[in-house]
Amino acid sequence: MNILVTGGAGFIGSHTVVELVEAGFSPVIVDNLSNSNVSVLKGLKNILGQDVPFYQEDCNDFEVMNKIVQKHQIQGIIHFAAYKAVGESVAEPLKYYQNNIGSLLNILEVMKGNGVRNLVFSSSCTVYGQADQIPVTEETPRKKAESPYGNTKAIAEDILEDCIKSGMEMGIISLRYFNPIGAHSSAQIGELPLGVPSNLVPFITQTAAGIREKLVVFGADYNTPDGSNIRDFIHVVDLAKAHVAALKLLDKKTEGSYYDIFNLGTGRGNTVLEVIETFEKVNQLKLNYEIGPRRAGDVEKIYGNVEKAAKLLNWKAEKSLEESLEDAWRWQKRISNL
Where does the NAD(P)-binding domain lie (predicted)? Predict the structure, then answer.
């Protein structure tokens, strides 16, 4: 099957491209490189021993997307492409609504016009907001999002559900990610944030590499064991494999309309300070960090029940927090020439 991967040069997208090829799929990447780097393509070639078709285009351009889908006879789409920084979304909400919602609507129109049936959508655990009960399940009521970024994911899920309710002949799966970290074990691809990282682990690795003077922990006065936020940190390769599992499930749903949602995580939470301490321990170094004020848009704690993914996708996370942080540091050392 020819699979279009939007945002395929990004962190999760690039790792998913690797898993798709290794599972026998033929991915085609579309990425406007607004939050990624063309060097990722070289890393992919080094891992796979082949080039992956790549288009530096914007998913909001209907004509371009239509031509790519027709040219490659695309049979399924994994839609990663979106802006994803919580803090930036609070400061620039219109940018996030225009891009994240607009690109999804465009993808759906292209699918509808070309008879492309299967879509795997990149959602987020942010749709749960600050849940009353942890761990969250797929049936946990969504709360008002803490950020415009989170709200774009909630709105996108509603759009997808409405499409299926209307009787559109599609199979759609929304994957609610928790916190992807790590890198490919080859250190050929990994997280490559542009500018100041918005995610914890690249900030940790950049601080360890001397790129950042210090790491700021956003708040240590939350109602958690050590006062820092709790998150479910999942290795990006485990997350990538779940997308292949989702496509395989959709491939079995050959008729009618199908929509489902899955949590993707490890099923347990770690505090930010635990992650810092684990990074120091497994990589045998000390980080310069300090406690700062809370950050707008952050929820106190979130981690998920992942039994549904285990049952229906036949998938579960296999890599440990220690492995994730070792891989992340190996990647950082390579790109920093350490």
Answer: 4-327
pLDDT value of position 295: 87
Q: Within a 10 A sphere around the Cβ of 69, how many other Cβ atoms?
A: 23
Distance of CA 194 to the CA centre of its chain: 16
Instruction: Write out residues in the chain with pLDDT < 50, as ranges.
Output: none
| CA–CA distance, 99 with 239 (Å, rounded to integer) | 24
For domain 2-182+234-267+304-319, give the CATH number. 3.40.50.720
Q: For residue 174, give the 3-state DSSP assignment.
A: strand
- Euclidean distance between the first and final Cα of the chain, in Å? 40
Pairing between β-strand 2-6 and β-strand 26-30 as defined by DSSP bridges? parallel
Residue 166: CB atoms within 10 A of its CB come to: 8
pLDDT of residue 331: 98
Name every residue whose Cβ is closer than 8 Å to that of residue 146 and which is 6 or more positions away in sequence.
86, 126, 129, 130, 297, 298, 299
225 exposure class (CB count in 10 Å sphere: 0-12, 13-18, 19+) = exposed
